[in-house]
Here is the input.
Amino acid sequence: MKETNQVRWGMVIDLQKCVGCDTCTVSCKAENRTPPGVTYNVVTEVELGSFPNVTRLNQPRPCMQCDNPPCAQVCPVKATYKLDNGIVAIDADRCIGCRYCVVSCPYGARYFDFGQGYEQEMVGYNDMTAPEYGVDRGARKKGKIPTGTARKCHFCFHRLQRGEEPACVETCPGDARYFGNLADPTSHVSKLAASPRAMVLKEELGTHPRVIYLK
Here is the structure.
């Protein structure tokens, strides 16, 4: 995997623009061909305020790509680690499926691949897998990686290698998602991340997420 010290990928999500349409969820699932029970992009509904002054926000929850990821700290075989480009990666060949990382993620952004599929609903589903972290593993078969391993959002790593944005960013009808290099102070995402509206989830945990929200 090619990495550069000049790039620190990050995402900004404008909660005022998110309409909860779940297009990001569907496009991510199609792009990454994730199996049942594995969804890299979910949109939760958050309630703010107290009765009778209550409002609701749609809050997308991909992997936060933390700079201080708890999932990496608990992995007994160092299968999870931080890339220089800002993405938290999983070495599926090293992963032993213990699921410590799934439990330790404070954002609920990790999943375990139990080997299930959509073959009955979609003919040809098992014929191929989407490349993850630059590795193309071909057909999907139970007992073959990535089944039996932890999985999560990786900012569509394979699309980044082609110079494209993550699928969720490209398909968002409300333009609620922004993606770019947080290491570049002149980039659009860096400017948005410095906005007074900017916030991160569970800041008190010190995970330093690279997914920033505009409230």
